[in-house]
Amino acid sequence: MRHGSAKKRLGGVLSLDDFETAARRHLPRPIFGYVAGAVETDWSLHDNRAAFAEFGLLPRMLVDVSKRSQQTTLFGKTYAAPFGISPLGISALYAYRGDIVLATAAEAANIPMIMSSSSLIRLEDVATESKSAWFQAYLPGDVPDITALIDRVAREASLQLGALPRREIAGAALEAHGALVLTRSLEEAVEVANLLAPEHLELQVEDPEALLSLVRNAGAVFLGRLTPEVVGDYVAGPNHVLPTGGTARFASALGTEDFVKRMSVIQYAEAGLRDAAPHLAELARVEGLDGHGAAATVRIERTGGTT
Which CATH number fits domain 185-259: 3.40.50.300, 3.60.15.10, 3.40.50.1980, 1.10.150.20? Predict the structure, then answer.
C-alpha cells in the first residue's frame, strides 16, 4: 500500500473498532477471522472486553496536557507508551514479511513488540530490523528441537564474530575455550558454572537474583540481560583484576584488603605448649625438621614438664 493511499484509507479511523472495520474490508475472510477472532467460542475475548468496559474515562476540558507523558520503563528500557504489539502467529499471512513490518513500526514508534514463536520469519531477520524486539519463546521439551536452537545460537555467534576487527584472536579463544552446554535446568547450569569457576559469569535469565545464591565460584557476576560484562570492565565500579583460569574456586577479585599489611601474633602458655607437644613432634618428624620439634621439647623440659 502506497503512503498516500494508506493515509486516505486510514483517514476515518479514530478507534480500534474503526481499524477492525477497515481490516474486515481489506483482508480475505479467513485471515480476518484468524486475526480478529479468539479461542474457541470467543468467551475469553468477551470477558476481557466486559472487564475493560467497567472502567470509564472522564473528559476534562481546558486542562494543560502539554507536559503529560505516557512513557513507561520496562526492564530498564523507556518506551513511548505503556502499550505495544502483542505476538500474533503467522503474521506474514496478512502482510508481506509481516513480523518485520511490525518490528520496524514498533521501533519507529518506540513501543514494545513481541514476535510470535509461530512466526514465518526467522527471529535473526527480525532482530536485524529491530534490536529491541522480544521473542515469545516456548522452548520445546525434546532434545532434538533444543539442539536445533543451540545450532542457531552457534551460527549467530559466528556471524557476530565475523564483524569484529580482532576476529582472528577472538575466534581462536572461542575455538580453544568456548562451548555450548545443554543442561536440564537453570540450577544445573549454575552448577556447571561453579565447576568452571569463570572470571565473568552473566546470568541472563528472567530472575537472576534467584540463581545468585547458588553461585559459589566466579570472579564477577553480572545480573540480567541489561548488564553486559563490559560495564564491569570500565564503569560499574568494581576493579577488573579478577581470578582467571578457574582460580575463582579459591581466589577473589582484587580488593583493598590485598594492599593491607598483616602479621600474625601467637602466644602459648605452658599448659597449651605441653598439650601441643606430641603433635608438634610428629609433624616435625614427618617433614624432617627435627629441630623444630626439639624447640618445643627443650622449652617444656626447662619448665620441669615432660613431653
Answer: 3.40.50.1980
